[in-house]
């Protein structure tokens, strides 16, 4: 076990493999002609936290009826897989999306959605393979490059992620791609680039909570706690159901020494997305900071279970266990 070192956090620049801010899904657009793939893209950007579980369950029942009527409808299998993903049934989701791919092997959206699901199951290599295939199918899709970048950033492949976000922006400058680029640049240690990308994202859409979150995180890293706090509060007002808004606000509160308030914000983020490893790690860090060592250990363990390659959570877990051992001597 390590010696008397502190757990690492979001302001230190460590933890390059942590999950990035969850997306504020509002970027999917249709192109001229209203092709079927455009319909797939609309569904592709439905994500956890965007639908309440009751609505998602009702959609599952509705779509299952359609599949019963026509079991060879790839789009309905894709829809069902997406709603199962929202409900947290990852095995069921993967099965339905695989059925969609068998029926429509040239859908980039199906490949990308399967990549998202596989990533959450811990099968990162196969997830990346599916994303790479999606990019091969749709090399000029801003959305597919964006989602591939998201997956790469979740796995800690920051240089590749940055390149994919830049490719996405080159095809179509979008607020969310710029925000994602800012997040990855911040983890990679490029504070200037991260701040610039976040400001560009906000200038494109000042109502985007994700853009505000990206700017808040960059400002916090630069030491401007007051501006960071104001920006984080704006994000929370814009999108109170976006876990990233609560993460950003929690980090600001923690940086200001308001540990109890920070813990509550992180708990809210975890409640909105229990599968977010970064939220679990942040909650564990705040609990550790106020002396709740055993609960912090539980959160770090959950973060590692969700993302076994999350080195920051692993380091934090080791430090917390060491602290518990010392306290009990």
Q: What would your notes on this structure say?
A:
The protein is mainly alpha-helical and 329 residues long. It has helices at 36-44, 53-69, 74-87, 90-103, 108-121, 124-137, 142-154, 158-171, 175-188, 191-204, 209-222, 225-238, 243-255, 259-272, 277-289, 293-306, 311-327. The longest helix has 17 residues, at 53-69. It starts with 35 loop residues before the first helix and ends with a helix. The relative contact order is 0.11. The model is unreliable at 1-5 and 10-35 (pLDDT under 50).
Q: What topology does this entry show?
A:
Elements: H1 36-44, H2 53-69, H3 74-87, H4 90-103, H5 108-121, H6 124-137, H7 142-154, H8 158-171, H9 175-188, H10 191-204, H11 209-222, H12 225-238, H13 243-255, H14 259-272, H15 277-289, H16 293-306, H17 311-327
Helix pairs in contact: 1-5, 2-3, 3-4, 4-5, 5-6, 5-7, 6-7, 7-8, 8-9, 9-10, 9-11, 10-11, 11-12, 11-13, 12-13, 13-14, 14-15, 15-16, 15-17, 16-17
């Amino acid at each position: 076990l390590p010696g008397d070192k502190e757990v690492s956090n979001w302001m230190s620049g460590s933890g390059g493999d942590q999950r990035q801010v969850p997306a504020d899904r509002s970027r999917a657009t249709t192109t001229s002609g209203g092709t079927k793939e455009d319909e797939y893209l609309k569904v592709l950007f439905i994500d956890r936290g965007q639908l309440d579980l009751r609505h998602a369950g009702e959609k599952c029942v509705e779509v299952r009826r359609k599949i019963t009527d026509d079991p060879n409808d790839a789009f309905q299998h894709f829809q069902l897989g997406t709603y199962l993903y929202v409900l947290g049934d990852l095995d069921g989701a993967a099965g339905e999306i695989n059925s969609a791919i068998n029926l429509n092997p040239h859908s980039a959206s199906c490949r990308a959605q399967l990549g998202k699901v596989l990533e959450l199951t811990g099968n990162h290599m196969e997830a990346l393979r599916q994303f790479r295939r999606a990019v091969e199918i749709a090399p000029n899709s801003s959305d597919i490059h964006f989602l591939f970048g998201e997956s790469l950033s979740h796995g800690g492949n920051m240089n590749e992620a940055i390149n994919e976000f830049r490719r996405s922006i080159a095809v179509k400058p979008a607020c969310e791609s710029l925000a994602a680029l800012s997040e990855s640049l911040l983890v990679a240690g490029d504070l200037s680039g991260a701040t610039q990308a976040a400001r560009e994202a906000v200038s494109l859409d000042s109502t985007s909570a994700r853009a505000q979150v990206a700017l808040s995180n960059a400002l916090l890293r630069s030491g401007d706690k007051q501006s960071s706090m104001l920006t984080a509060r704006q994000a929370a007002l814009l999108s109170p159901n976006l876990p990233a808004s609560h993460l950003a606000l929690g980090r600001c509160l923690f940086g200001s020494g308001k540990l109890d308030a920070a813990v509550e914000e992180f708990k809210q983020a975890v409640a909105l997305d229990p599968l977010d490893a970064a939220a679990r790690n942040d909650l564990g860090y705040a609990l550790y900071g106020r002396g709740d060592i055993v609960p912090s250990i539980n959160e770090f363990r959950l973060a590692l279970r969700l993302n076994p390659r999350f080195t920051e959570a692993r380091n934090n877990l080791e430090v917390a266990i060491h602290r518990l051992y010392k306290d009990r001597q």
